[in-house]
Amino acid sequence: MALINTEAFKAAAGYAKAVASLNDIKELSPLVFLSGVYLALNKGVINEEIVLADDLREKILVALKEAGHRFEEVDSPHINQTFPLDPTLKQAISECQKLNLNDLILKLAQAANLIIIESAADGSVNLEAFFEDAIFKKVDRYAKGLSKKFGFDVNQPEIYALGALVALNNGDLAQHPALSAHINAYSREFNAWIVQQGWQDLNNLKDFLGDETVQQFSSLHPLHGFSKARNPLIALLNAGIEKVSRTREIECVAYHEAGHAIVSLALRPKVQIEKVTIVPNERYDGCVFFDDSNPIFKHVFPSTREDFLEDLCVSLAGQAAQLKKYGFNAADIGAQSDFAGATEYAWQYITEFGLDDSFGPVQLSVLSRKYNIKSGWLFDEAQRRLQSLLKEAQQKTEILLAEHWENVERVVEGLLERKTLDEDEVRALIFPNK
């Protein structure tokens, strides 16, 4: 049975939601969930053998009081009330789905950082302990060195994430395996950011480091912006990692859109590209816009077999370019609209317009509309052909991208530099000598 379906989990979650409601908390955190475990155990509503060590009970109580969360007044769980989960709690629950509540408790206790930390009156963490922490001093020193070497704003969180990377590379995190693993997991994102910045010899900072024994931490230090986090240093580094990661995400979008553009130019030069952009808006992260006054767009669907197959390849080229660049596991949900369009095209190609030789000139909608036949071997065969056709188009797209990969790379470089390109600019990149 999945963890979330167990009575113990439901009881703990119910009391956690009651605590959240009492304190007007908008989303459940690891600490709030642990308060639910504590209350459910105290009230005897959990029948399973759940282990909550005495010292952990005490730490939960202390952490709740330090956070200003009331819980003694809770007398019953809020089973049917709905609360969003913060990302840390959501991930922990997901990772423990096949385990039990004890495993989740241990994971949440780690996530909640239940080591007692002195707090200020407003509930923020007293940062003096962090400023004296040896790892923080190393990261801060490297961040300041990077700032001096490359002229980057020392108040930006990215520079501290890069400082942690230098600390990792220099072996300063050897005694901190969790932090080491966390920083190392983003190595590709760091590399993409460093390349875009044009930085070289990142680890050679000996001429830019200040006196390690003299650290000045002003009231403007960016760590102050994370004083309400459970661990301000980790929160600062994660803020930097998030900004660094955006660089690789933008690069990924550039490969996606360049794939669409290059395959379109290769297969259907008659369709003019209006622009290729990686400037995001609320509907997309990037997009290729085609000239909708072109005669081919007078029809809802492409009109010939050749047009259909070309459109399928163009639709599939975005993610195919991502996978060629970053590998099989780089597939993401960014291509869902591309796949939806390709699937619709292919289904119409097979079942409405009779353009698939293997399936033949059969229009399934006639069977459905006129004879109320909505399933059977013909429908099964159409679905098999749908999958086969899409896979064939995918293979053709991969071959085309391999043949034109140098052009994809040139367009990506142009997009990262200028953000938006029209077809003349794309062609100038592809054919620089013409």
List keywords for this structure.
434 residues, 57% helix, Methane Monooxygenase Hydroxylase, Chain G, domain 1, three-stranded antiparallel beta sheet, single chain, mainly alpha, 3 strands
CATH architecture call of the largest domain? Up-down Bundle
Distance between the termini: 65 Å
CATH superfamily of the largest domain: Peptidase M41
* Tally of separate domains: 3
Overall average residue pLDDT: 84
- Sheet having the most strands: 3 strands, antiparallel
What oligomeric state is this?
single chain
Q: What's the gyration radius in Å?
A: 28 Å
Number of helices: 17
Strand content: under 5%
Give, in order, the helices and strands.
HHHHHHHHHHHEEHHHHHEH
Beta strands, count: 3
Helix fraction by DSSP (H/I, runs of at least 4): 55-70%
SSE class? mainly alpha
Structural commentary:
There is one protein chain. Helix content is 57%, strand content 3%. The mean pLDDT is 84. The chain contains 17 helices and three strands. The chain has helices spanning 7-22, 30-42, 54-66, 87-95, 101-111, 128-131, 134-150, 157-169, 177-184, 187-197, 232-267, 305-326, 336-351, 364-371, 377-403, 405-418, 423-430; strands at residues 273-277, 287-290, 420-421. With 434 residues, the chain is mainly alpha-helical. The protein folds into three domains: 3-111, no CATH class; 128-230, no CATH class; 247-430, Peptidase M41 (Methane Monooxygenase Hydroxylase, Chain G, domain 1), CATH 1.20.58.760. A three-stranded antiparallel β-sheet has the order 2-1-3. The chain is flat, with a radius of gyration of 28 Å. Helix 7 (134-150) crosses helix 8 (157-169), helix 8 crosses helix 11 and helix 11 (232-267) packs antiparallel against helix 12 (305-326).
